[in-house]
Amino acid sequence: MFNFPFSLQTFFVDIILPVPIPGYFTYRVPKDWEAYVQKGIRVVVPFGTSKVYTGVIVAVHSNPPTKYQAKYLLEILDEYPLINDKQLDLIEWIAGYYMCTPGDVFQAALPAGLKISSQSKIQLNPTFEEWEQLTEKESVFCNFLKEKESCTFDEAKSFLEVKSPYYLIKSLVGKSAIFVFDELKDRYSPKIIRKIRLTEYYTHKEHLTQLIGVLEAKPKQLAALLLYLQHISVLRDPSLNAKGLDKKIFTQSEISESSIQTLLKNEVFEVFEQVISRFSEGDDELIPTKFELSNAQNRAFQEILKSFETKDICLLKGVTGSGKTEIYIRLIQEALANGDQVLYLLPEIALTTQIVMRLKKIFGEQLGIYHSKFSDNERVEVWKSVAEGKYSFIVGVRSSVFLPFNNLGLVIVDEEHETSFKQTDPAPRYHARDVVTILAKMHQAKVLLGSATPSFETYYQAKNDKFGLVELNERYGETLLPEIHLIDTKYAAKAKQMNGGFSEEILDKLRVNLEAGKQSLLFQNRRGYSPYIQCQLCEWIAQCTQCDVSLTFHARDKELKCHYCGYKETLPTRCGACGGTSLQTMGYGTEKIEEEIQMHIPGARIGRVDLDTTRSKTAFQNLILDVQNGNLDIIVGTQMVAKGLDFDGLSMVGIFDADKIINFPDFRAHERAYQLITQVAGRAGRRGAQGEVYIQTNQPTHALFQAIIDGDYEGLYQEEIVEREGYNYPPYVRLIRLVIKHVEDTKAKKAANDLGNLLKQNFGAGRILGPEKPLIEKIRNLYAQEILIKIENGVSLSKFKINLRENLDLAQSWPSFKGVQLIVDVDCL
DNA sequence: AGCACGCCGACT
DNA sequence: GTCGGCGTGCTC
């Protein structure tokens, strides 16, 4: 760091601000603070006329900006860097690669609790006495604060009727009249639970046995004591008493509050408070960490280590149920023993389940979990714990790539092919799997990509020796791959073997399974009751008012909903066109499947697993528990079940809309269909028994089904890769998608056309596809057009992107781009 | 992205 | 005559 004690130079800092404006922002450092500014610390700055933001310093220098007057910093939030150099480098890399601003990345990288903004609170110092030191304006403001207890920057601004209250506030802070507390300190409070334990006296065996004798006459108190001893066997080991028992456990059993109170009064029990981390699920005993790998697993494990000697990235391609997890665990143990940090990325839904419980049991306190359903408090807690080194192992979703690692040794990306690793909606539109390879390079860490059905991009790299490749082709134990049956729905319909959407075969199988006490899973990749409702007279279909899609009927809420914009309306009784009353639900969603199966198979206990039934944090876990405990016979679900559920009991899987998946208009449709169907099918038949899978389709001769039945990933890959090469699709080219949006259809088309022509001129028509209307032309009243850019392998991506950015900037200055939104999606899926 | 400045319709 | 609609342009 610079340190010129008598320097006449003025210091400036370049900072990242959470705004979608390219580049960094230069601010001036007040003379007194020169010693405190440093790369990686957060600062609060004024921005525009009335806003304050938290930014992070990326550079300290003494070059005044020439084109504008730099403003002063308002506040310094950290003593030490909160964001380390590698993180700053990663932010910059992502912004460059994904063609967004550092601010976009910063916004995604930091939990909100670490980004105070205009909402920061101001409070009067209660011990403040020296009112005579204040200016008139200041004392008026302080009196206002006295009344209000606290106020926000915004409130202060409107009260003071000035454009920027920060100078006055700063002066008051200097006089110790007020506090500005960053919301971090305010919002972030540790969680405390109340526990009960024996007083020290009764931890002695003789006192305790004596007590039990005395309580013989008081059965209720005795019951309470015995319940305690049942959970905490103090007689066996008095030191266990220190752990205590959650008060809830008493109240949940038959023990009355009054008997507890009596025991507390008589100083048998005492209450104490414990600060708990928000996600340590109790203090389960750690299970023994030594387990044997099977021969196949051990061979794979050794091969991975070998591959890491020469390559940084390795693909582990292991069939469902081959026991990849044990191999991961072994690698994680090695890395941790080595003193390295480990990051284990999972798709969101997989994270709520058993695997995390299992890892928690093995790795205990060193394991931190980073999940999108966690509150902001919890995220800040994880962030700090990683920075402090409390967690050396993180299991998390996409965004955990931004955590403050300083010594990463191993990154595992499980279910590597999952599209949820790519962020689609707000920028940065990054792919965690790809970001992780850069992150790992910075840390000189190894990356293991795991999947039963790798993405073709990844497999291509492995095949071409860029990544290591290790295969695990046998299922763990003796379990056989499920037997897959195709049901020809066209034929079944002719033979009168269809019952609505269900073939007799599936219904029969469900009945047989139910009688045998076995569980079944039905897969329908569409939530709600029916994907559309239609008038039987005039064929009118209820459409969303803001989007170019039909409305899905949700029976539970008796509403029509748009799955794209969230629009809702109550179920109409009349046709929107002819006024007729014969509206009918068309097609099948999970709700309707659930209802009809209930009708066909009365007595079956049916559970539904889709976005609608698992919105809350615990709902999904409760459903899983119900399945595990055998409280459900049939589970109906969307792709959530394919990805989230992982247990033994399922003996049969039924798949309904296979045709929809296969015929999806996208060059990756076959790859995706293979992955999804294989994944769903893989839910059937674990631990010994062979499972059965029934797929309803009207094109049973489709080659894809044969590949799925044979588990012939390789064959499908070979076939598809030829097509990809022939038609110039990934992995032979990189794709960048441009989306052009406008409220007016014609304006979107005009802008897209103009841009398309420019790009064709400058990059060659062969590289530009479109403009074309996307699958859904209008969402939230915005019409969209798409342009696809193909960049063949070997072309310098960074140069291409700089060139592309210039073209885009030029286009956006055109009159035809007025009011047009332009989205850039690099490596779009 | 916000948010201010700025230029045209329905209200006291 | 004003309040307020959202079009456009800037933010270190």
From TrEMBL:
Binds 2 zinc ions per subunit. Zn(2+) 1 binds at residues 535, 538, 575, 578. Its cofactor is Zn(2+). It holds the Pfam family PriA_3primeBD. Its EC number is 5.6.2.4. Residues 506-737 form the Helicase C-terminal domain. It catalyses: ATP + H2O = ADP + phosphate + H(+); Couples ATP hydrolysis with the unwinding of duplex DNA by translocating in the 3'-5' direction. Belongs to the helicase family. PriA subfamily. Initiates the restart of stalled replication forks, which reloads the replicative helicase on sites other than the origin of replication. Recognizes and binds to abandoned replication forks and remodels them to uncover a helicase loading site. Promotes assembly of the primosome at these replication forks. Component of the replication restart primosome. NCBIfam families: priA (TIGR00595). This is Replication restart protein PriA.
